Amino acid sequence: MSGVLVDTSVWINHFRKSDPKLVELLHSGMVRRHPMIEGELSLGNFKNKGAFLTEYSQLLEVPTANHQEAMIFSERNSLAGHGIGWIDAHLLASCALGSARLYSADISLSKAAEKIGIGEI
Question: Which Gene3D superfamilies does its entry note (predicted)?
Fold first, then answer.
């Protein structure tokens, strides 16, 4: 495994109350970043946002699936009708491209990741 992509939902929860699993992943150097998660976080309102985003930008990035790759991935993995959005589909496709796992607090997204074999560790 080449890392763990941590979904926005986990980060938001972590800002409210420390997530021991996320802390462990950070200390082990396993956390990866994705530009769409970075974008979502940049629109948030949380303490020390500037410093956090600077640190986040230093994490290794999973390969970012392009539009066509995400479309094909979504179709091949029957993602339609499972309660996830387009950004979620991009995150799943990117994880698959980068042999990464996805850690999410979003139940529908977590189930989709588990279904295709890239759910959290």
Answer: 5'-nuclease
What are the pLDDT digits (tens) for 11-36? 999 999 999 999 999 999 999 999 99
**Does the pLDDT at position 99 exceed 60?**
yes
CATH number of 92's domain: 3.40.50.1010
The residues, any chain, with a CB within 8 Å of residue 92's CB and separated by 6 or more, are 73, 77, 79, 84, 102, 109, 112, 113, 116, 118
111 part of a folded domain: yes
Answer for the pair 112, 84: CB distance below 8 angstroms, yes or no: yes
Domain count, the chain: 1
Residue 120 lies in a domain: no
CB 115 within 8 A of CB 77: yes
Contact 70, 93 (CB under 8 A): yes
> pLDDT (tens digit, 9 = 90+) per residue, 74-87?
999 999 999 999 99
CA distance 7 to 73: 19
pTM here? 0.94
Full residue range of the structural domain in which residue 58 is found: 4-115
Q: Is 11 inside a domain boundary? A: yes
